[in-house]
Amino acid sequence: MLVVNAQVQGFRPRQKPPQSLPCVFEPKKSLLTVRRAVWLILRHSTAQTEADLHTIALLKKLHPDLNTAISLAKDFADLLRRKQPERLSEWLQNAQQSNIRAIVGFTAQLKDDLDAVINGVTYQWSNGQVEGQVNRLKVLKRQMYGRASHELLKKRFLCSI
């Protein structure tokens, strides 16, 4: 293969390489994913840059049906950040009237356990740590199911703490 390549090189006319290559394309900008869009929208307003605000405005312009969803999401995030449970019933009403299927479903789930949601917004305490420990123990139990005695399971629980 190298012999053929060397022979062909002799037949080709020599060209001078260009001094600088012309710019054929612009570098690709990163695409706006759903996760990034949600992050931009729900980010605290003090942390948003001009580019973020421009991206949100462009998103609203390209998809006018998202205006309601964006405003409802921002209002809900603000309600949670400021711990204002008195605004929750008004937000639920507005969200229910929006006729956006995902948001209406979300409000239905919130209404099912409204007392817990109000307590979650009101109090600074959370049972997240406890739920995390329970989940960890259940995973260990599932992994050990049918494999060994209760004594080994007990030792594994104690060693994982």
Provide tags for this entry.
161 residues; mainly alpha; 9 helices; flat
Task: Write a brief caption for the model.
With 161 residues, this protein is mainly alpha-helical.
Overview of this structure, please?
It comes from Merismopedia glauca CCAP 1448/3. This is Transposase IS204/IS1001/IS1096/IS1165 DDE domain-containing protein. Pfam families: DDE_Tnp_ISL3. With 161 residues, this protein is mainly alpha-helical. It folds into 2 domains: 92 residues, no CATH class; 35 residues. The chain contains 9 helices and no strands. Helix 4 runs antiparallel to helix 5 and helix 5 packs antiparallel against helix 6. The longest helix has 17 residues. The termini are far apart. The model has no long low-confidence stretch (mean pLDDT 82).
- Average pLDDT rating: 82
What kind of sheet is the major sheet? Answer: none
Instruction: Give me the Rg, rounded.
Output: 29 Å
Domain count, please report it.
2
The class by helix and strand makeup works out as: mainly alpha
Task: Extract low-pLDDT stretches.
Answer: none
